[in-house]
Design brief:
9 helices, about 15% strand, four-stranded mixed β-sheet, alpha+beta
Length: about 290
């Protein structure tokens, strides 16, 4: 399946405690990278969310941004009276010990750590919060995957168009190679005969032909054409697979590139070598698009 690494989704959930939203955005990346931004009240759930997210995609750089807008009753602060009393007693004892007659200002006591407590999510069952986050994540990921698959289909059309162009170039190379091969063989034969004539010597005809065959085998590209045809068939068949295919296609492009490079090295015909350059340019366009696939 062709799935892009680039995608975006945003979902908003109204809960009894307030509004919870999740925004997922992703871009291309060689490996799997997850970043999460959570409000303070939900920070303890980061490991859980990362673990859940790792199972939901193969590769790419993903950012999850959670936002929480609590209802007013969960924003209201309460006074920890027991702690406030302890602070007050400590100040009174310190005044007596240091013989200081200083009034205790209630505002200062209220600003001390732990005296004012915001209810927030503290009284909510942690399993309930986790279930809510998981449901929100599932919903956001479903939307995110849908966008990635739509984008993946656009990439597929472009890749297949470039593959058609590449196959047409290779077909031209194969057609021209038929004539160039015979010409090269004849030229080599004439050069050997001319050299032997100048040297005033000759070779056994069978040994002579055997050496010619050995030499021509070094620049024959029939095997490269066969392997390229096989690679092209496998490339086109990959789209039928249900898993993400980006890495597999990337590997296949490397194999195709190796065969084209070998052909360019073996073939001496200038026109055909120019075509192999065109083939590499078409293959590079395919490679660029594949870098966007998961």
């Amino acid at each position: 399946m062709y799935t892009s690494m680039t995608g975006f989704s945003k979902v908003i959930e109204q809960t009894p405690r307030g509004v919870l939203s999740l925004e997922i955005s992703s871009v291309n990346h060689r490996f799997q990278e997850i970043n999460i931004r959570l409000p303070r009240e939900l920070s303890s759930f980061e490991p859980f969310l990362i673990a859940e997210m790792r199972r939901r995609f193969v590769r790419g750089k993903v950012l999850l941004r959670f936002e929480l807008l609590l209802n007013d009753e969960y924003k209201m602060a309460t006074i920890n009276r027991a702690l406030l009393s302890l602070y007050a007693e400590a100040f009174i004892d310190l005044n007596k010990e240091l013989n200081i007659n200083r009034e205790i200002e209630i505002e200062r006591l209220l600003s001390l750590p732990g005296v004012m407590e915001v209810q927030g999510m503290q009284e909510i069952d942690q399993e309930e919060i986790q279930a809510t986050l998981l449901a929100l994540l599932d919903k956001a990921v479903a939307s995110w995957n849908q966008m990635k698959q739509v984008e993946g289909q656009h990439l597929k059309k472009k890749i297949m168009a470039d593959l058609t162009e590449l196959k047409a170039i290779i077909a031209q190379v194969a057609e021209k190679w038929q004539g160039a091969r015979d010409t090269s063989f004849s030229t080599m034969k004439q050069r050997v005969e001319s050299t032997l004539e100048k040297m005033g010597t000759s070779l056994d005809p069978n040994r002579y032909l055997q050496e010619i065959v050995i030499l021509t085998d070094k620049w024959d590209v029939a095997e490269e054409f066969t392997r390229l045809e096989s690679h092209f068939k496998k490339f086109e068949a990959v789209e039928q697979e249900s898993d993400s295919v980006g890495r597999k296609l990337d590997f296949m492009v490397q194999e195709i590139n190796r065969e084209i490079n070998t052909m360019g090295t073996k073939i001496q015909d200038a026109e055909i070598r120019a075509l192999t350059v065109d083939a590499k340019a078409a293959l590079e366009k395919i490679r660029e698009q594949i870098q966007n696939l998961e």
